[in-house]
């Protein structure tokens, strides 16, 4: 707005100067021509300088605005990218934690199952050994009983034979 006012003032000044110059030309043609050339040159220089300054200011403002917009867009994009990266990292961390927890649970379950299986196997082995010992003991007792029975039977038979022999001998002697 300030630049527009400056341009308007410059244009008004130029118009006024030109009007004055026209009036003066009527009075002193040669002096006015020289003055007009000098004034016009100065005015053009000033106008060109002002316009160039305005253009430079506008260009700088546009460049700054574009830079700010680009910076804002870059910041927004960077924030979005950081957001996405954080989301991805969180998802990956959660995935890794879940995998580790699952693996730990699986290992714990396997260890518990292994312990239970080992305990069951130990119990079964102990039961089998005890049963075998009992069976062996029973078999040994049965064998002992059978052997004793056989020995007793043999002894009884021997005793019976002896008694028969003694009876036969006694009967024969008495005869």
UniProtKB/TrEMBL annotation:
Keyword check for Transmembrane helix: yes
Q: At the top level of its lineage, which domain of life is listed?
A: Eukaryota
Indicate the transmembrane segments per the record: 5-28, 34-65, 72-98, 104-131, 143-173
Ordered alphabetically, the record's keywords are: Membrane, Transmembrane, Transmembrane helix
Protein name listed in UniProt: Uncharacterized protein
The species this protein belongs to is Alexandrium catenella (Red tide dinoflagellate)
